[in-house]
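=== RUN LOG ===
request id: a7f3
mode: sequence -> structure
chains: 1
length: 715
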Amino acid sequence: MGDDGLIANVLVTDDARELLAAERIPVREAHEALAGDPELRERLDTERATFLRDPAFQGVIASRLPGHRPADLRLAAAFAVVFGYHLLLVRAWPNLPWGFAVFGVAAYLAVLAIACRIGYRWIAPLRRLFRRVGTLPVEDLWRVYAVERIVWPALVRFVEAKRTPPDSTQFTYRAVDGLHAESPTATPVITGAGERLRTAVARSATGAIALAGHRGVGKTTAIRFVADGVLGDPDRPPLAVIASAPARYDARDFVLYLHALLCKEVITRTHGTGRPRRWATFARLVAPVRRRERAAQLVRSLLAHLVAIAVPVLLGAWAWGRPPLRFVTDPPPLFTGLTGWRIAVLVLAALVALVVVVDLAASVWRTARGLRPARRADPRLRELRAVAGQQLRRIRFLQTYTTGWSGKLTLPLKGEAGWTRSTQSAEQQLSYPEVVDEFRAFAEYAAGVLRAAHVTDRLVIAIDELDKIAEPEKAQELINDIKGVFDVPGCLFLVSVSDDAIVSFERRGIPARDAFDSAFSEMVRLDNFTPDDTRAWISRRVPGLPEQFVCLCHCLSGGLPRDLRRTVVELLDLPAGQPLSAVVELLVRRELDRKAHAFTGAARTVEPSPERSSLIADLVRIPAVRGPGELRALAARITSGEGLAALRAQAAAYLLFSATILEVFTDDLTRDRLYGVPGGEPQLLALARQQMAFDPRVSMDLLASVRAARGLAVE
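=== RESULT ===
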């Protein structure tokens, strides 16, 4: 089947038709767009050629083979109906008039046909199993993989590019998909910063790249994208190690920790099974449960077979008039003196024998497939795995080795001679420079072997959450101490740093240098979502959400990805069908309640004073304030108070922001009124929300300009 056939297979599915119909996109237009996509065709050609050569696809192949189905109740019911009708017909046949006899035979044939149809429905999957296994279903497996992993995501991307959120102030949406947890097969939102990171990773095989940005902007997600090959070559993802920076830093222990993680990952990737990361650890955890389950399954299968065999044996002993034991040890002639009962017993025995033989054959086949020897691994990979295991043991323990021998020689005249020797050696603790040298040597060796064996092109070692070290000086000291491992050939380091780090990096060339300037070859700043990024992110998770609500979520979150997810989750907790003003009122009210508790708690940490008491008195009134006018008045009152200027500015800025949101997002808001006001763009509201964490005065200036542009009251 060619590429056009794969595309057609996707477009005829109910999911694809529903997706296209929801966006009013003709099927023909979608087919032409996918067929003319050069990137899609190139990926189909490339992955088809390497589908079975890549060990990572072995799990896909095994998972696509249908398993053996147990005996269906419908088969038993069909046999019971035929058997019962047969007995009735045999017993009544001698006394039936010819008319009833003809009717009975016709009914018997009808019952037999119905029973055969029911039985065929059970037998057909088993026949397909043997046919698929016997003919090596490479093409079937490739089609399933290509449709699910390549063509369907391409169709989703095409629809998203054509998708325009509806212009409505009624809270509606079509579905929710992958909002609370990222789906592994979901198409990620690659922002402008993500593209810059992709370019930086592509051109840097060695060195260190810093990821800067404040918390919640997506540094951890970006690291995961690089590790999974999303920001690179998805067909050959790098061998990635992700470590969290220590809260209490010790350079020597941290480098040893990186070394141990690298050894574990090398052992996993060179195991030769193509299994996902951390499979070895997972296998050790589930092995006892799996053994118990297999033993229980074996016992159940044996009991079922024994019962199935015992039933025709007992019926045969009764039909031939012999005790069961004698019937088994000395069976009578089975095909002489046949009666209706004996024929029925023989038919039952034949069916039971067929079921047992098929079941045993399927079990033998599955066992044979499981015992089939795996493809012999590359000798270089086996050597690398052995070295990694040795390094891992050396990191974990001090090796102690004791050897000795003693002898005793009895001489004449009762004389004795003896000799004893005992030697003990303990490996001494390595110094920090030696730890760094060993890590560099192993990382360079592993990168070279994996590249030569065509496993991956590079190693990626990511150090996450460095910006969460409380003292910036400690973070700089850690980078300064471990930067000796950053220039390993074939090894790329990704380090998440704080916003201050990028400021220092941009001052490079000025005499004032610091650890960040000298440690990193490149620095990529991850920014908040733009309105287009937010629209793309929401449209993939909540399709059909109107543009006004998309923009509302962007403004309330400030475009911060982490807060955007929380805001959308909170939005979806509200009942659908409400107008925009009611939704805004509920969201703003909930956020004001939380911020009132936060501001009050911060004020209570200050030394008691009349100014503090006055501010707390204003803050506790926030949950009771109603309407944008009262919010603006309370913001002005808090701003004019004495003392605690920073906290007053934060509280006043948020109150003014909430009032502006309530006044902008009303039920008569159209798309043109939302985006068609020069100087009053919604992105300025998002920027005002962002600046509250840095300088509330800047936030209030932005809010004042937006209010003036939209003709709202300016205090």
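=== NOTES ===
The first helix runs from residue 3 to 11.
Residues 531-709 form one domain.
=== END ===
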